[in-house]
Amino acid sequence: MIELILPATVATEAAYDDRPRPGDRLLSSEREVIARAVESRQREFTTVRHLARRALRRLGHPDRAILPNRRGAPQWPPGIVGSMTHCAGYRAAAVSPAELSAAVSIDAEPNGPLPAGVLNAIALPSERPHLVALAAHRPDVHWDRLLFSAKESVFKAWYPLTQRELDFSEAEIVIDPTQGAFTARLLVPGPLLGGRRVTVFPGRWHSTPALLTTAVHLPAPTPRRDREHRTHLTVNSPLPRPTFG
Predict the structure, then answer these.
(1) For residues 51 and 93, is the Cβ–Cβ distance under 8 A?
(2) Whole-angstrom Cα distance, residue 149 to residue 7?
(3) Is 41 flagged in the annotation as binding?
(4) Phi then psi for 201, rounded to 5 degrees?
(5) Which residues form a coiled coil (predicted)?
(6) One-character DSSP codes across 167-211
(7) Is 107 annotated as a binding residue?
């Protein structure tokens, strides 16, 4: 699923269960990190790292430990950006060379309603009428859960670029129900990419009866020496939609 909403230059791997595959194993430092976790957490941690290593191999990287940092974000090899996700019935990893991508983030959620009280914690007043209109247009999608997933993808793209937290109230999401896209307008100063302030993160989404997936991809900034020959990104408009494979 996740490969449908990311550029072809991003290597992705996914699984719908935690069955071990030939050659899959945790490295010793990873086993230490997860040793005291409950069994279900150990399984999802293990599977998603197997997937990440498979994706990295496709980019020519040898196997190495993928350890979480203090925030829990995966620490990728130098020159790589990426993301992991796991939910009931789905695990995925996506990685890309940093020379092609400034940020890659993914999130997966069950296509079901959010638990009681969660929407009030994550949705801006401006987003709630939009969810009502979306539900009337396409009742097969749980739009409250998709909003949550989109904000998770935005945070996962934001954090590696800034090393700062981003609150749910600090990005306003507008979802396009027909194009499988969403736009996240940052309500705080965005990161600098190639000397330009990014104020909008573009995203994509996909749904099945069981699952929702979202992704954010920010292309790497154009090298300064080439900019005079290319069209500049405007600071206050969405980044161009990437080419999706």
Answers:
(1) yes
(2) 19
(3) yes
(4) -105, 125
(5) none
(6) -GGGEEEEEETTTTEEEEEESS---EETTEE--EEEEEEEE-SSE
(7) yes
**What global pTM score does this model have?**
0.88
Is residue 6 part of an annotated ligand binding site? no
Whether 156 has a binding-site annotation, put simply, is: yes
Provide the residue count of the chain. Answer: 245
pLDDT of residue 20: 78
Give 30-88 pLDDT, tens digit per residue.
999 999 999 999 999 999 999 999 999 999 999 999 999 988 899 999 999 999 999 99
Cβ neighbours for 175, distance < 8 A, ≥ 6 positions apart: 130, 134, 143, 146, 147, 150, 181, 182, 205
Q: Check whether 116 has a pLDDT greater than 50.
A: yes
Is there a binding annotation on residue 44?
Answer: no
Q: Is 150 helix (H, G, I), strand (E, B) or coil?
A: helix
Distance CA 2, CA 212 (A): 10
Contact 217, 198 (CB under 8 A): no
Place of tokens 């709630």: 128
Per-residue H/E/C for 4-32: HHCECCCEEEEECCCCCCCCCCCCHHHHH
| 49 assigned to a ligand binding site | yes
